Amino acid sequence: MLPVGGSSGMRIGVLGESLFGRVLACRMIAVGIQVTAATRGPVLWRALSEAAGSRLVLGTEEGSWPPHPPRPPGVGQGPQGLVSDVRRPPPVSAGGGSWCTVVHVRREAPRHGSFWRTLDALLTLGTDFAETVGPVAGEQAVRVTSSLRPGEIALFRAGGARVLRPDVSPAEAALLTVPSH
């Protein structure tokens, strides 16, 4: 459905909350992808970072991503993933190479930068994002996003749209929940 870490690069835009970037990072790590997170809220990543160890690198920008040359699974550091929730989109060259996936999570698509004009996939995380999806993906995307039910997300790719009902396991929820003090 959403092929991350494959032999061709993947650029994914997410209109939604930063939590979903952590969900995608968690799932990429689970399948053996080395993930770099460029985030405005590193404290939100603490539990996942502790569990992932060296498979997750945190920073406030993408810096010298990828930290290692992306390779097929089982070779070197393997596939590389970048999950960013910072304001500025990743460079368009990010996600263009083999064995790398780049995810940019925003509440609104950036007005500038080529990354969002070259997406391989776009996710909208609920009806709250129906108006913001229009400039990126058109009126059909607005209609699909407007029709989402609670717990559903929309996936837009060149082949059309799909409504997904992701399930977050209790173990994932524990890694993604920020403890209150």
Q: Could you state the order of secondary-structure elements as H and E? A: EHEHEEEEHHEEH
Low-pLDDT segments, ≥5 res: none
Helical/strand content category: alpha/beta
Strand order of the largest sheet: 3-2-4-5-1-6-7-8
Shape: globular
Helix content: 10-25%
Number of helices: 5
Total count of strands: 8
If you compute it from the alpha carbons, what radius of gyration comes out, rounded to the nearest whole angstrom? 15 Å
Distance between the termini: 38 Å
The overall pLDDT, averaged over residues, is 89
Characterize the structure shown:
It is built from five helices and eight strands; from the N terminus they run βαβαββββααββα. The mean pLDDT is 89. 24% of the residues lie in helices and 23% in strands. A hairpin with a 2-residue loop joins strand 7 and strand 8. It has 181 residues and is an alpha/beta fold. An eight-stranded mixed β-sheet has the order 3-2-4-5-1-6-7-8, with helices on both faces.
Give the topology:
Elements: E1 10-15, H1 18-30, E2 34-38, H2 46-52, E3 56-59, E4 80-84, E5 100-106, E6 121-124, H3 130-137, H4 139-146, E7 153-157, E8 160-164, H5 170-176
Parallel strand pairs: 1-5, 1-6, 2-3, 2-4, 4-5
Antiparallel strand pairs: 6-7, 7-8
The gist of it:
The chain contains 5 helices and 8 strands. The chain is an alpha/beta fold and 181 residues long.
Key attributes of the depicted protein:
single chain; 181 residues; alpha/beta; 8-stranded mixed β-sheet
